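Thread: "does anyone have the structure for this chain?"

Original post by V.I.:
We have the sequence but no experimental structure in hand. Need at least a predicted one for the grant figures.
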Amino acid sequence: MTNLKTRFLLSAFTIMFLLSVPYAGAQDTSLIGIQKGNIWVYELIENTMTDENGTIIDFTISSDEDGVVNVGETYELEITGDPSSTGSYGFSYNNGWTEAVGTGNLGQFGSDAIYTDWDYWSTTAEDDTIFDLMDVTITDDAEDFSVKGEMNLEGLVPINSTIEIVYFKTTGVIKSLSLINIYDTTEEALIVENITGSIATEVPGFGFLITLLALVAVPVISKKRT
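Reply from O.Q.:
Generated one for you, C-alpha cells below.
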C-alpha cells in the first residue's frame, strides 16, 4: 500500500512539472491559444493529501520554502514567452513571495497549456503516463475538454484513485486539476482551479517586477523577494 500511495502522490504533485514525453504524431501545431503576457490565477481549493506518516504534503510552486501555496491561497501563471515552432514556451509561477520560471511544452498533455487540437487529444490523451493502469474517460464539450482516469484496487485495503485534468478549449489552458484517493474509507484530495476564466488578463499582477528580471526557457528555479 505504501508504494501505491507514493505513486499516486507523485502523480499529483508533479502534474505541474510533468515528466512525460511529448507525443509524436500528426498534431496541428498552428492551433495555439496562448501568447506572451497572458496571466491566469489559480487557487488551491483543497489539499488533504498526506504522506505515509499522515502529514499533509505541501503543495508548492517551487522548491523554495516560500513556494508553498496553502488552501484558499492563489498563484499566478504567466506566459513569459511566445510559443516557438516546437511548441515550447516560457512561463512563470508566482504566489507573491516566490517566483519560479521555466519552459512548458504545448505538445505535452498535462502541461499548463497545450495545443488546441482537440481531435488529436481525443485519441491520444488517454495514453499519457499520468493515466497508467487507469480506466480513462474523455469528455469533449463545447467549452471544456477533460480527461479522467480511475483505478480501483481490491485487497486487504481497497484503494480508489481518480485523476482529472480539464482544459479550456479556447485557449488550451488548464481549467482545473484534481486527484482523489480513497484508502478504505479515508478520502484525500488535491484540487486546483483556474479562477480567471478562459480569457487571460494581461494586467501585471504581483509577479510583474520579478518577471522583468527573470530568465526564461530554463529549468524551473526559485527567486525570493527582498
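V.I.: this helps a lot. The longest helix spans residues 2-13.
O.Q.: and The longest strand covers residues 144-153.
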